[in-house]
Amino acid sequence: MNNLVIIPLIIPFIIGIIMVIFRRNTQLHRWLSVITLFAIFTFSIILLYQVQTSGIQTLQLGGWQAPFGISFVADTFAVLLITTTSIVALPCLVYAFHTIGKDRELFYFYPMFLFLIAGVNGSFLTGDLFNLFVCFELMLISSYVLISMGGKKVQLRESIKYVLINVMSSFLFLIAIAYLYAITGTLNLAHLSVRIAEVGQDGLTTSVAILLFIVFSLKAGLFLFYWLPGSYSAPPTAIAAIFGALLTKVGIYAIFRMFTLVFYHEPQITHLIIGILGALTMVLGAIGAVAHSDIRSILAYNVIIAVGFIIAGLASFTSAALVGSIYYLVHDMIIKALIFLLGGTMILVSGTGKLTEMSGLIRNHPGLGWMFFIAALSLSGIPPLSGFVGKVYISQGTFEANLYWLGAVGLITSLLVLYSIMKVFMNGFWGETLLSKEMEKGSTKGLLLPIGFLTVITIALGLGAEGIYIYVEQAANALLSPELYINAVFGGNPIP
Amino acid sequence: MRKNLLMLHTVTRIVVFIILAFSVFLFFAGHNNPGGGFIGGLMTAAALLLLYVAFDVKTIKQVIPFNYTTMIAVGLLIAIGTGVASMLNGDPFLTQYDRYVTVPVLGELHLTTALPFDLGVYLVVVGVALLSILSIAEDDA
Fold first, then answer.
1. Distance from C-alpha of A93 to C-alpha of A453, rounded to nearest angstrom
2. Using CB atoms and an 8 Å cut-off, which of residues 50-79 of chain B contact chain A?
3. Domain count, chain B
4. What is the pTM (predicted TM-score) of this model?
5. Membrane-spanning regions, if any (chain B) (predicted)?
6. Which structural domain, as residue segments, surrounds residue B80?
């Protein structure tokens, strides 16, 4: 038992509630939200240390033993993602201080932001399928509010689509849970794993696995991503950045958890489907990213490409590929937040998102320009930066697993990512300067700090890849051997 | 033209108390019988809503001067507070404590910390139901 496991879920929740009571005091909201994120970061570092030294940490809520109560499980994979979540959320929050506006701040922006973080952290930590559903809903309902907050026409249109698609996928999620409960009689992930290993993964169980895969693909933007580009272009920059960084990653995390812990018996069916859909996602995402000439759409399609690429690591299902996936997942959370903040700042300065209407921003904004350049290189995986390590390991894993086509698609789409993002850089920053300093639509005052922070993080993660390798390797090993997870959850008690 | 609503007003005044009493009964019955915070809260909200329908929003706001947003927040704090209390006590989050207490009039009672948790649920349900209905009612556009 370790109560620290649930702390990343309840701290933002409680602070969010307190903020609701003191609605008018925006200054208090700002301070409280920053302090909360620092607190989550501190606790997740402590948790990381504990997992490293004494194995997977678990908490049985209410003291009820494993399959009967709700378990919270912190293994290295989950804790790494929680740490990254708090690192990524902080700059988005600071960016929001300057750009989000008084109206949204008064209408519970910060509480909703913290509830979103609580939902994301809960989804990472829970060890129970239905509890995962509840945490998903906590995250999704906060995101519904965030996406429609402000009530602009485009936001309302896109939030209708977003809400409809997510209500639909939550409904499918419930049906999948019901089937799974009917088959196995349990919802605890560790217990599910044991029961399915006992009776074998027959056709019916595999069908349910694929239904769950469809659900999480809808959330993660894997192949069923058609709602994503529109929805992620509608909200203000700070919100779009946190969506791009966190929401799809929770879906990816759920796919990883289900297909490494529970449904790992029929990889020639499930993992092959995952691989094919991953390749299709990369191809279609790359086509979208290359075709568009609007910054927001290009960035949204880049989110989709990364989802396909991370999933390719799972499809290969070797040690190297999983290491790569975890590296790339951590990198992608950081770089997606960074690139969305950069793109949003470009739109803020030039007053338009269309690449054809902007040019030569580098003369007045050299810092912004070069940080965009670094982010673009990191996004496409140029060696000293953070995207490189993950790409190498995933490619190695796909080749080891004889999935040459998958590795090839991954590498070719990397080129297209580089092309699409360089298109933004060259059109937006190079060329003749159209806007003089006075004609610009907005100022970058205070915005370069969070962007710079994330740029430093992505460089540091690239140069210091070796420093976090032990954690990543441990997380990958834990994913490959489910009995570690099961033993930690049951803690020596007899498994009913 | 304003109709004379004497019958409605008189019946409402009596019926509201019956519904409120029933909702409180449902709330306390939850541990051993059907009922609990959710249905009790909905029933209370229904009683208050009857007041809003029979009279008008302005009058009832003077009679029941609650801020429903704060009510939701307080309810959530109470519910999560029972969990945090057991955490501070060194037990897992949301551990339930119970004790048999003899109270002068009511006799021996089985008191548990599930009750404050349910009270939190009750407040949240009342708050959410009334807040959503009233904000739609007051929307001019």
1. 12
2. 69-70, 72-74, 76-77
3. 1
4. 0.95
5. 12-30, 36-55, 67-88, 119-137
6. 5-140
